Structure formats: structure tokens, C-alpha cells
Amino acid sequence: MFISYCGENVEVTATSSTSTSTSTSTTSTSTSTTSTSTSTSSTSTSTTSTTIVNNYSVDNLQDAQVVLKSLFLYQGKVDGLNGLNTRNAIKEFQRRSGLVVDGVLGPNTKSALEKGKDSYVNIDLYNYEYSEDIENSQQKLIELGIYTGDVDGIKGLQTENAIKEFQRRSGLVVDGVLGPNTKSALEKGEDSYVTINNTSGESENNNVTADIPEVESNTTTSTVDLRNYNPNATCVDGYVNDEQIWVPDPCFYPVFVYRGESLAQVNSQAELDAYLNQNWTLTKDKVYTPLGTVPTQNYIVGINSPVNGLVMSSNANNSIVIGIKNDNNVRARPQSGPQVADAVFEVLVEGGMTRFINIFYQSD
């Protein structure tokens, strides 16, 4: 195009581009002016980071099983039942999360489960990777009636506990490791079982800590009756028949349960759960043997009081010990009797108050 410049028609060439930022330079001469517009594009790149947060909601046992399954602590059916494997999984989660290990799905455990593995405080590096050997062992353990979980090739807690149970029955070191000895024994199946537990021998790894799962029983002094045990038979859920007799599951390896001085053998998972719900346990109660009379310096039986060590009067009534409690409060006074007691103990009670326990042995 042409414009008038100093009385002359001058051709001006203009080149322009649409841009975000534009700079213009002009070069002038006496004869022509060339204006060039150059476009400069400015590009801004934004980066968005996304944090994936576990969003679990745990209101009941079924929800807990879903979370425990994702953590490979539970490998059974999500059925909402508080079975042995579910309780074992809850206990292991509580241990890793620094909670009280009681196997109870309480509010603290529910809250921790909602955070998943972010709740772990007592944690090693748990690597759950697929293994063909583990998958084969899971299948064999199912055939033996020891494992009831998924055949997924993952050595989760339930699989490890099943390996330990097989090792115990086979007289191997109970370490939960699928080493060459355990694999060789699994190939033989129940032919590897021994009748006497053998805890000697070399472990298949250097760590010989045997963390025996809850399904274990103490068979060092008793032997379970295996007449109804046949892992090759058809597995059934234990039940009570019309004659009120418990029908055992032939695939379930019998275990003993204890309550006080009582002992019972259980022959199915359902029966075991029923006993455990009635406060039976899989381990014997500890039996404490009294020490008896302990020799004491300057103490003669029948002469010195066993309560305070002082010499008793000849007419002392020392046949029984009586303890009487009274409030240590101004409203409880005047009091009579504590001054002649053999010993007085002060105990703290509610509200910052204390009470006296007056022990009478040689006086009325």
C-alpha cells in the first residue's frame, strides 16, 4: 500500500501476526519506511500433582474383611463372620498399627482400618508379590484341609499361618517359610505328618522365630483323636444332627480347647468358633504352684504373727484372717478397731478419697 510521506508516495510493507506478546521495530530512511511486526508466543505449562488417598469406610466385620483383604492379611471369603482367620487378621493389623492386640473390631481399630496401611507404625517392608511356588503350595494346603483362602500366589498372613500349621504337623521347624524342606514335605502330603512334634533341626532360614497362629493347640501332653480326620473325604461344615451329636468335618485337623481345668477336642471350624465364643481358649491356663512357707528370719510359726511378724499373745485367736474396710473420712469418725488390728492398709478409691483395710488375725 502507499502513503504520503514528505510529499511523495512511498510503498510501505507491513507484516503482522496475531500473538500474545507483540514487539514492533521501525527502520526509517529518506525514501522508504519498512515496518515489520514480529509475533512472540509465550507458553505457560502447569503441572498438577494427584495424591491417591485410601478411602475406606469400616462399619462392620464385612467392611473390615475387605480392607484386610487388600492388605493381604485376610485371604478368605468376605462373609462378615468373625471366624478364626478374621480374628488372626485383625490381631496382625493391630500389631502393625501399634494398637492393643486383642482381635476385637473396636472403634480404634475401625478408625485405623479406614486409613489402611497408613496406620502402620510397627512395620517391616511387606512385599506381597506373586509366586508360582506359593500358588502351588496354596493348592496343596487346600487339599490337606489346612488352607481355606484364595489361590492367588500371594504369601499373605493366612497363607503363612497355613504353612506353619503344615510344618507343625510334619515335624518341621515352624517358621512359615516355604523352603526346600517344606516344599518337599508338601509333595508327600499327609504322608509327611508325624505323631510327635519335633522342634529340633535346622530352620530353612536364619530366623527361627516361630510365630504360631491361633489355630495351633498344645499337644505336648495330649494327643488328638484322628479317627474322624480324613482330608481326602468330602468336606462338610460341622453341625448338630437330630440326635444332638456333633458331626465333625473330616477335612478339619482336630485341636484341643481349654477352659479352666476342662479339656475338649473340636473337629470342625464351626465347632471351634462356637467354643471360642463361649470363652474357651486354644492354650492351657497357667497353673501356679504355691511356694508354701518361706523361711523368715526371727519368725517362729505359732509365736509370731504372719501378718506383721510381732509376737502374739497366748490367747490370740489365730485361726482365721479377717479384713474390714472403712472410709478414711471425717464423717466416718470416731472409729474403733483399727488401733488393735494386726495391720492397716490405706487404699486409694474414687474422688481422691482413701479407705482403710484393717487386717485382724490374732485379735477379735
Compute the gyration radius: what is it? Answer: 40 Å
Oligomer: single chain
Largest sheet: 3 strands, mixed
Q: What average pLDDT do the residues reach?
A: 75
Span between N and C termini? 133 Å
Strand order of the main beta sheet, please? Answer: 3-5-4
Number of strands: 12
Beta-strand proportion: 15-25%
Low-confidence stretches: 1-53, 196-221
Order of helices and strands, N to C?
Answer: EEEEEHHHHHHEEEEHEEE
Shape: elongated
Structural classification: alpha+beta
| Helical stretch tally | 7
Helix content: 10-25%
Describe this structure in words.
By secondary structure, the chain is of the alpha+beta class. 21% of the residues lie in helices and 16% in strands. It contains seven helices and twelve strands. The chain has helices at residues 61-70, 84-97, 107-114, 132-143, 157-169, 180-188, 269-277, and strands spanning 2-5, 8-11, 14-15, 21-28, 33-40, 239-240, 246-247, 255-259, 262-266, 322-327, 343-348, 354-360. The protein has a three-stranded mixed beta sheet with strand order 3-5-4, with no helix packed on it. Strand 8 (255-259) and strand 9 form a beta hairpin. The longest helix has 14 residues, at 84-97. The protein is elongated. The termini are far apart. Residues 1-53 and 196-221 have low confidence and may be disordered.
